[in-house]
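[agent] plan:
  1. take the single chain provided in the ticket
  2. run structure prediction with default settings
  3. attach structure tokens to the ticket
  4. add a short note for the reviewer (M.T.)
[agent] executing step 1
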Amino acid sequence: MKVLVAEKCGFCLGVKNAINMAKKTLADRDVVYSLGSIIHNQDVVNELASDGLETVESVDQIESGTVLIRSHGATKDQLEAIKEKELEIVDATCVLVKRLQKISQSLNQDGYKVAMIGDENHPEVQAIVGFSDDIVVIGSSDDLEKLSSHEKLGIICQTTQTPEYFGEMLANIVKKGFSELKVINTLCKEAIKRQESAVKLCRQVDIMFVLGGLHSANTRKLAELCKKYNNQTFHLQNWDELDKTVLSGKGIAGVTAGASTPDRVISEFVENLKAYKGSEK
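[agent] step 2 finished; step 3 output follows
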């Protein structure tokens, strides 16, 4: 089978940095705690766990030692709790998330209520909300009722959302009649490049595969985008999850991957696809 790989896919710089910092920290410590999964890829989480990285959901679960702040960041309260316990902090927060935290604080200080467009359940969004005094998360048009009109509103967006979604939600907010709006583009340029590359590729192939964790927001977004232009799009974590019957009658396959998907997962999937002869069950 002919296989084409998206020009931009796989680990982003923020994820690479978080993993490298984790490995470096684990090299001279017996146990390191990660406040939430370091990235949304279970294979990587399991690998680092075998080296001593223990994932916890609350600072209350840590009595002593070192805490790794994952790429999604942490809230102000979480950081203060870590400092109160005098735990060592290794900060692997993505620079873009840090930027959003500073922007939201600055907007509040300038008298703006902050509207963050994104998924309120995503750890990145929670980390931003945890740094703001007056912020509301807008995930859909239904959430617009959380906003009152005729006041100063500062608007930011979850880094991995699409420009189309950001623009759509902005248009809906404008209709609310605010007296002053300040919009700051906080989308990740690398995420946009991955989205554009995936859409371009999925239009050229018979079947499209998006590799990455099922809980990875940016991977799900890639799959949703590709599905719009190629209904033969499948979101899988790895080769073992592939139902090979979907390959029947397909000549060209496209492959992309989320920002938390290791190169080895992509390479294995691509090589197995190339070797596939159609006789496997």
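[agent] step 4 note for reviewer: The CA atoms of residues 3 and 253 lie 5 Å apart.
[agent] ticket updated
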